[in-house]
Amino acid sequence: MNVTIAVIDSGVDVKHPELANSVADSFDALGSKEGPHVHGTGIAGAIVAHARLMGSAPEARIAGDPRIRRGDRSGAESTSYVILKGLDYAAEHGAQIINMSFAGPKDPLIERGDRRDRRAVAS
Q1: For residue 48, how far is the Cα from the chain centroid?
Q2: 47 with 29: CB under 8 angstroms?
Q3: pLDDT one-digit tens code per residue, 5-36
Q4: Rounded (5°) CA angle 42-56-64
């Protein structure tokens, strides 16, 4: 309750009935014109769903939706710079928890940014 969570992913359908009044706003770090994606929407739903389904934290608030990757049939991808923009956005918007459900090789830039954002969010 009263927890702000950032879902850094592929975009969230803020009009989905399971997410009603749970998503504060959206930020597209890619600057794309893509609509919401099922993966980002599903992750947000797993956290804050509260209609027919029940998420793990239904009374939490999603602090924006930093879209950091494109999602299409060939797979989703992003860059370190775009992910860091998403982390900055999350920290600036009061996220106490940041969810990033994606994989990839070890990235020293993301590790440094993650540590910086943890300090910013904790302060």
Answers
A1: 12
A2: no
A3: 999 888 888 899 999 999 987 777 777 777 77
A4: 55
